[in-house]
Every structure is written in structure tokens, then in C-alpha cells.
User: Which sequence fits this backbone?
């Protein structure tokens, strides 16, 4: 099949892809406990760090409140008998240099914090004042439900057939009885499984994390996880069959390929809405983490690296 990236909106799409991850507290990414992490229900909108992509988020949030990394990684970064230490050296987990680009990363990290402080957080406060909590949770759940295909496929790629089966069951139950995923009924019947993404799949097959990386308007990554993030975008049919940012010859889409501007607005609008919704759900949480942490960059970096190392091992 021939693949072609649309040229007319290349720059805009690049921004869209960036926004889709979620620096601010990943939009509704699962935390592996069936709770929505500051974003959605299975993944409670208060859990995962990394973030959702537009309608087609690779894994789910984006803009970045640095504390999200610590706040979300902290709960499951270490077993109960091993308290989480956000300042533990990453080489204790990875065994290699992990932040050779620190001068660049710290500058982008501070840029993301200022964007959150002066733009995203004020908007999220207004949104939170208007939109009831129940609706915010439902919106997070729906975005998480939409990103079912990459989670299912990554379970299959790693040979986790039980996890793949649970993902299918969750999607069917929540999409029907749960009203298009607005309600996470699967969690109520304990139909939960850790979220899998393509970065974890690469790690499963022995690909090393590579350097730590911070990009504008995105959550933290390693080079491997950023590659996985792009891979998850391609694995989500929404990105090429609904509001295509990738054109596949001979494959029809809900929004015709020629209507590229429409696809761009749909993707960007959905992503921005998800980011604001997730940020709204985590206002107090991130505020507390930020105020209680002296070296926020180091805390976020080490929390992220520990969390991802644990996710790959699982």
C-alpha cells in the first residue's frame, strides 16, 4: 500500500502530533489499575504520564505540567516495600547514561512549564468551573476508549494474549453498555489490564531506551519511547480511516482525503479539548507536587525513567 503524508498541513500536523501526547498530565492514560489517570476511566485521569494524541493519540495526553510525571509515576514506580524515590539515579534502573542532552532538555522543560502556567492552567480552571466532574471523567473515558487499537495490538505483539482479550472485552462493554465509552463499566467488573504501547513493545524485544528527551508541548520521552509514540499513531485507525493524518491509497475514510483542512481541525480540536479536560482534572494534584518538589526537572525525569523501566519489565 502506498502511504503519503499530506503536504499542505505538514507543519500543523506536526504541532498536532506534539500536542497529542500530553506534557501536562497525560490525558486519561490508564495506570494499570483500571483507574482513569487524570484522563480517562480505565486509566484513571490521574495516572499516566506520558499523554493522548488528538483524536488519534498514540497512547493517550499533552502540554506539560512537569509535576504530572512525578504525580503519575509515583504510585506505581516501585512496589510497596520499596518506596518510590524520584531522585534515585536512573542508571540504577537502566544501567547507562540517560540524559546526555540535559542542557537542551532543561530549557524545553522550562518552556513547557511556562506554557502550562500562563495558558493551559488558566484555561483549565475556567473549564473546571463550568464542566461538572462527572462529565469530565466521561470525556476522559471516551478518549481512552478510542485508543483501543494500539493497546490491543501491542498486547498481541508482546504475546500477551490475555491482555489482548481483556482489551477487546473492555472495548465491547464500554462502547455498548457504557455509551460509547463514557462510562467505564469494565472497571466495575474488574476487567482491567496494564496499558501497553509500542515503546514497551520495542523494549520487550530488547531495544534500549536511549537518551532522555524533552520536546516542546509534549510529555517526557526516551528516544525509544518517542519512536514508539509515533508508531502508536500509525497503529490507530482513527488516523487514517476517520480523520486521516496519514493517507492510505485505496482505503476510504470518514473525512475524505481531499478535505485535509477539516481533518486537521477535527484532530487538533479533539486533542486540545482532551488536554484541557485532563489538566482540569488534575489541577490540585499537580499544584501540590510542584510546590513540594525542589528540583522538579530531576524528579520528573527520574520518575519517568523508573516508571517506564517497570512498565517494560511487566
Assistant:
Amino acid at each position: 500500500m502506498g502511504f503519503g503524508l499530506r503536504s499542505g498541513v505538514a507543519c500543523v500536523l506536526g504541532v498536532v502530533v506534539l500536542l497529542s501526547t500530553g506534557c501536562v498530565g497525560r490525558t486519561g492514560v490508564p495506570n494499570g489499575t483500571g483507574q482513569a489517570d487524570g484522563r480517562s476511566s480505565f486509566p484513571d485521569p490521574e495516572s499516566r504520564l506520558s499523554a493522548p494524541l488528538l483524536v488519534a493519540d498514540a497512547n493517550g495526553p499533552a502540554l506539560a505540567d512537569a509535576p504530572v510525571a512525578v504525580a503519575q509515576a509515583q504510585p506505581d514506580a516501585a512496589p510497596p516495600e520499596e518506596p518510590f524515590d524520584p531522585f534515585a539515579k536512573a542508571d540504577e534502573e537502566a544501567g547507562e547514561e540517560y540524559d546526555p542532552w540535559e542542557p537542551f532538555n532543561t530549557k524545553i522543560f522550562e518552556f513547557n512549564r511556562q506554557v502550562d502556567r500562563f495558558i493551559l492552567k488558566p484555561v483549565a480552571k475556567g473549564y473546571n468551573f463550568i464542566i461538572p466532574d462527572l462529565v469530565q471523567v466521561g470525556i476522559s473515558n471516551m478518549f481512552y476508549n478510542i485508543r483501543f487499537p494500539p493497546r490491543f495490538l501491542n498486547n498481541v505483539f508482546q504475546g500477551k494474549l490475555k491482555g489482548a482479550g481483556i482489551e477487546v472485552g473492555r472495548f465491547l462493554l464500554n462502547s455498548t453498555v457504557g455509551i460509547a465509552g463514557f462510562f467505564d463499566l469494565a472497571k466495575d467488573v474488574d476487567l482491567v489490564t496494564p496499558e501497553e504501547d509500542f515503546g514497551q513493545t520495542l523494549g520487550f524485544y530488547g531495544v534500549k531506551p536511549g537518551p532522555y528527551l524533552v520536546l516542546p508541548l509534549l510529555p517526557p520521552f526516551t528516544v525509544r519511547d518517542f519512536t514508539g509514540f509515533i508508531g502508536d499513531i500509525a497503529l490507530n485507525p482513527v488516523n487514517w480511516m476517520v480523520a486521516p493524518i496519514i493517507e492510505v491509497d485505496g482505503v476510504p475514510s470518514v473525512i475524505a482525503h481531499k478535505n485535509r483542512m477539516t481533518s486537521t481541525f477535527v484532530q487538533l480540536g479533539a486533542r486540545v479539548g482532551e488536554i484541557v479536560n485532563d489538566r482540569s482534572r488534575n489541577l490540585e494534584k499537580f499544584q501540590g507536587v510542584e510546590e513540594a518538589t525542589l528540583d522538579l526537572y530531576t524528579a520528573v525525569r527520574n520518575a519517568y525513567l523508573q516508571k517506564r523501566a517497570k512498565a517494560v519489565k511487566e
The two ends are 34 Å apart (CA to CA). The chain has a mean pLDDT of 78. Residues 3-313 form one domain. The CA atoms of residues 26 and 120 lie 13 Å apart.
